Amino acid sequence: MVLLLPAVLFFFFITPSYATTDVTLQWDANTDPDLAGYKIYYDTDSGEPYTPDVADYADQGSSPITVPIGDLGDPNNPEYTLTGLSDSEVYFFVVAAYDTEGFESEASNEVNTLCVTSITSTSADGYYKAGDTVNITINFSEAVTLAGGNVIVTLDTGGTAVIGPIDSQTIASLDSHGHKSS
After folding, report:
1. Per mean pLDDT, which range of 29-43, 58-72, 112-126 is the poorest?
2. What is the DSSP string of 15-84?
3. Are residues 170 and 162 in contact, defined by beta-carbon separation less than 8 angstroms?
4. Residues 96 and 109 sit within 8 Å (Cβ to Cβ)
5. CB under 8 Å to 159, separation ≥6 — which residues?
6. Least confident range of 22-26, 32-36, 66-70, 172-176
7. pLDDT tens digit string along 3-39?
8. Domains present along the chain, CATH in parentheses
9. Residues 28, 6 contacting (CB under 8 angstroms)
10. Quick count: other Cβ atoms within 10 Å of Cβ 53?
11. Which of 120, 129, 57 is CA-nearest to residue 86?
């Protein structure tokens, strides 16, 4: 039995929460008539083997996550959400199809998340009051393009700060330490 390769894996959506992140992946459907499901491989290091440390496991468990075709909401437009990932790690993902005999396709292209490497703000005396204008710098693990909408930052106090609305702008490429790369 020959399995068709899932053509493209798309990084679809990240929903941050306190100390964990949910990541939704979407990919092209496999059209093999014996398709049984997909395996999602993930790690905090790029490339094989996809074997994250236990501390970096998704709520669903170790890599790979097996997703039977019947567990997908729409098998023609497959997507799956991994929950409970660390919000301080960059994760790398590939998807492979498997058939009813257990044969597995080659892996899709690899995609990755990004993470906030630092957030800094400044004020004259270190305190902020309601209505104050505050300059906030958010550094990501790689270049980010913001195209409309708002950025919502959850504060240590549990409150939120809304930054925006954001017109189309590109944030400079940063290295893993939050410094501009050349």
Report:
1. 112-126
2. EE-SSEEEEEEEEPPP--TTEEEEEEEEESSSSS-----GGG-BTTBSSSEEEEGGGSS-TTS-EEEEEE
3. no
4. no
5. none
6. 172-176
7. 444 444 444 444 444 467 788 899 999 999 999 999 9
8. 9-112 (2.60.40.10), 116-171 (no CATH)
9. yes
10. 12
11. 57
**pLDDT at residue 120 is higher than 80:** no
Q: How many residues does the chain have?
A: 182
Q: In angstroms, rounded to a whole number, what is the distance separating the alpha carbons of residues 48 and 67?
A: 20
- Within a 10 A sphere around the Cβ of 137, how many other Cβ atoms? 11
Q: 77 or 12: whose pLDDT is higher?
A: 77
**Given the structure tokens 């964990």, which residue do they identify?**
20
